[in-house]
Design brief:
alpha/beta, TIM Barrel, 8-stranded parallel β-barrel, two-stranded antiparallel ribbon
């Protein structure tokens, strides 16, 4: 198996200070969390940003500030979100890609998201894919249900995505595919053999899906965007403990952890 790439999704767009006092909100706080996750063993940081009131924001000046801090203190692979938050416009959502990070998330279809709809019509998906091509940013293809894999393969045929693809299977979102081993295996059968993949489990499913990812030779995402608890009823005191737990689990399962340099090679990221 390849060495294990751990992605730390530090903040997301949904979690509030009322839910956990440990959530980072300012660019400086997010960068501090990124450094702790890096020291714990993460090689990718998945970035959302918040404004001065703690609300989700895709303002590229906030991303630029946070990225500057992170890059001055770590060698982390920066992966910006183009998901933003439900209700944002396409123009808002794609802003951070124009900063030229190494990676960006790219959801390839719409999905019910709790009581809302995460809206990703195909013309917008194609537009985001083209912006990634323009700025030499590798997309991480976010898959909440199986039709999104087919949409991604269609983008390959249209010349908007290049092999090898990298997928992130986000399982357990209310309205998306449930977080089960059967569903993960089904999704793996749909992607090209040249692809790399990560699995993210939402809420109580985080650890079980991460464990499957380690065992099946994929990669894993952890962090407050997906889950704020270390165990049932016990808040994690930051993102780093969640990363550290996966490092220890992988070591016990004889799966070495990828450094940032090794992660770049595995993902075939373009030279900057």
């Amino acid at each position: 198996m390849e060495k294990l790439i751990i992605t730390a999704a530090l903040v997301g767009a949904e979690v509030t200070r009322d839910q956990t006092p440990f959530i980072p909100l300012t660019p400086r706080e997010i960068a501090d969390e990124a450094k702790k996750a890096y020291d714990a063993g993460a090689s990718i940081v998945h970035l959302h940003m918040r404004d001065q009131f703690g609300n989700p924001s895709q303002d590229k000046t906030l991303f630029a500030e946070g990225i500057s801090y992170i890059q001055s203190e770590t060698d982390l692979i920066i992966q910006v979100s183009t998901g933003g938050a439900v209700g944002m416009t396409a123009e808002e959502r794609v802003q951070p890609v124009t900063l030229g990070p190494e990676m960006a998330s790219l959801s390839t279809g719409s999905v019910n998201f709790g009581e809302d709809v995460f809206f990703n019509p195909l013309p917008m998906v194609r537009e985001f894919a083209q912006v990634c091509r323009t700025y030499r940013v590798k997309p991480e293809l976010e898959v909440f249900e199986s039709g999104m894999v087919q949409n991604a393969l269609t983008l390959v045929q249209q010349g908007l995505l290049l092999d090898p693809l990298h997928f992130n299977f986000v399982l357990g979102v209310p309205g998306g595919m449930p977080a089960t081993a059967k569903n993960l295996l089904f999704l793996l059968d749909l992607i090209p053999l040249t692809s790399t993949w990560t699995v993210s489990g939402i809420g109580k499913h985080q650890l079980s899906m991460n464990t499957l990812g380690i065992l099946l030779g994929g990669h894993v995402r952890t962090g407050f965007e997906d889950n704020i608890y270390y165990r049932k009823g016990v808040l994690s005191k930051g993102n780093a403990p969640l990363v550290d737990r996966l490092v220890k689990l992988a070591e016990n399962l004889d799966r070495p952890i990828a450094s940032t340099a090794e992660a770049r090679e595995i993902l075939r990221l373009l030279p900057r």
